[in-house]
Design a protein that fits this description.
This protein is α/β, with parallel strands linked by helices and about 475 residues long. It has helices at about 1-10, 15-25, 30-45, 55-65, 70-75, 115-120, 165-170, 185-195, 230-240, 280-295, 310-325, 340-350, 350-375, 400-410, 415-420, 450-460, and strands at about 50-55, 80-85, 125-130, 150, 155, 175-180, 195-200, 220-225, 270, 300-305, 380, 425-430, 435-445. The chain has one domain (about 1-460): Amidase signature (AS) enzymes (Alpha-Beta Complex), CATH 3.90.1300. Strand 12 and strand 13 form a beta hairpin.
Length: about 475
């Protein structure tokens, strides 16, 4: 059994394939847990994907799963599949640092709804992944957690704020990973690390029991994985309301993973590739134009659209993010990451009317943007304006320098947190330096099914599974 299991397991095995192996008893949950824990032990010191490794919990999960009857195991969507949870998300009895020196030893007394759903899905928790402090950077560095390094080039960032999650999935330290996204924090690291990341629609994934919303409704969660199918599978686990949530998302007609069976034909797509906040570099623009041609070859129309949602929404987003950061009470502000401290201080100068004015402005502007995009089946954009920068380079300074550089790198991600539309980041190629490039597909409101089907169609024609980072 052990020799056979060793041959069947590999670090880049898909979640769906791994689940089938465990269900057929070709490998045991404990063997799966031990396999991935060993890989984490070997790679994490140089990659910084995990802040806290939960080896005992992983083995406990495995023991519990091995006692489940086969008929019950079949009902569990992640049966025997390891996963990680971002360290911004509360886990009962497991340290949750929020990436902050102020909360270095904090252990919650309650689980988030996300943590409950993942446990009940039959998965195996490997650990909590690295995040910048409070998720406030688009790179994972500067706070308590180790810098999350890019598996394709360790001198570059894995992105943020779900950089640890993306690094874990891209490097084969976890088949699937949970992330959060308040301005691009699932899609940014997915793009940097060459994997798939889905930002769910507003209210698709509950923030219970600790919050009803974050950053004025901009913040949500989402899956990261090496394939569209695995990302859709994890989205099915995470999705669903909790009674009393302040917002509601239209329920899908079928499980999201079923959307992979659809074959989209002759869709009307928009393409946005410019922003006054920052334009794509030469390689990113060339890659995006190539991707648009690929979608045309698939039978879809792709129409360039002169719409700059990032520039229109930027003033409101900055206020809402700053106010949300400042609303967090910290025991010792002097311990804050200097960049986060600047945001926290600015947020504390804002008045209630500043917040309400920004929230109203964001919602009204977002409504206009959604209406303009609603005539299209989906919208294509570069995920980022350039590939992953070197660690320590983003931003190059504080204050307005940081604001300008950050929003100039992510002008195509944060607008769709403001509009609440679902979006998916999809790997599409490499820069000359060997760093991943990515396209973003944004759907109509609540239409995760549509963008998953379209992304899966692209992935079938341009597969990515055989492209592995140079870690071995």
């Amino acid at each position: 059994m052990e020799d056979t299991s060793a041959r069947l397991l590999n670090p880049y095995i898909g979640a769906v394939e791994l689940r089938e192996l465990v269900l057929k008893r070709k490998v045991r949950p404990r063997e799966v847990a031990e396999f991935f824990l060993a890989r984490i032990e070997r790679l994490n010191p140089k990659l910084g994907a995990y802040m806290t490794i939960t080896a005992e919990r992983a083995l406990d999960d495995a023991r519990r799963l091995e006692k489940i009857k086969p008929a019950e195991a079949r009902k569990l969507p992640l049966y025997g599949v390891p996963y990680s949870i971002k360290d911004l998300t509360y886990t009962k009895g497991i340290r949750t640092t929020l990436g902050s020196k102020n909360f270095e030893n904090y252990v919650p007394e309650v689980d988030s709804e996300i943590a409950i759903r993942l446990r009940n899905s039959g998965g195996i928790l490997l650990g909590k992944t690295s995040t910048p402090e409070f998720g406030n950077r688009p790179t994972t560095e500067g706070g308590l957690c180790p810098p999350a390094r890019n598996p394709w080039n360790l001198e570059h960032t894995a992105g943020g704020s779900s950089g640890g999650a993306a690094c874990a999935a891209a490097s084969g330290m976890s088949p699937v990973a949970h992330g959060t996204d308040g301005g691009g924090s699932v899609r940014i690291p997915a793009a940097c690390c060459g994997i798939v990341g889905i930002k769910a629609s507003r209210a698709r994934i509950s923030m219970a029991p600790l919050a009803g919303e974050g950053w004025g409704g901009m913040s949500t969660s989402g899956p990261l994985a090496r394939s569209v199918r695995d990302a859709a599978l994890l989205l099915d686990v995470l999705a669903g309301p909790k009674v009393g949530d302040p917002y509601a998302a239209w329920p899908p007609s079928k499980p999201f993973v079923e959307a992979l069976k659809r074959r989209p034909k002759k869709l009307k797509l928009a393409a946005i590739s410019n922003s006054a906040l920052g334009g794509p570099d030469e390689e990113t623009r060339a890659n995006f134009e190539s991707v648009c041609r690929m979608f045309r070859k698939l039978g879809h129309s792709v129409t360039p659209l002169d719409l700059d949602p990032g520039t229109r929404l930027n003033p409101y987003a900055r206020i809402l993010v700053s106010a949300g950061t400042a609303a967090r009470e910290v025991p010792n502000p002097e311990l804050l990451d200097p960049m986060v401290r600047g945001t926290w201080d600015y947020g504390r100068t804002l008045m209630a009317h500043d917040y309400v004015t920004a929230l109203t402005g964001m919602h009204n502007t977002a409504r206009e943007i959604v209406q303009a995009l609603n005539v299209y089946d989906a919208t294509l954009l570069p995920t980022l304006t350039r590939p992953a920068p070197r660690l320590g380079a983003m931003p190059s300074g504080l204050g307005e320098t940081a604001v300008r550089e950050i929003y100039g790198w992510i002008p195509f991600t944060f607008p769709f947190n403001a509009t609440g539309q679902p979006s998916i980041a999809l790997p599409t190629g490499f820069s000359k330096a060997g760093l991943p490039l990515s396209v973003q597909i944004v759907g109509r409101q609540n239409d995760e099914e549509g963008i998953i089907a379209l992304a899966a169609q692209f992935e079938r024609e341009h597969p990515w599974a055989d492209k592995l980072p140079p870690l071995e």
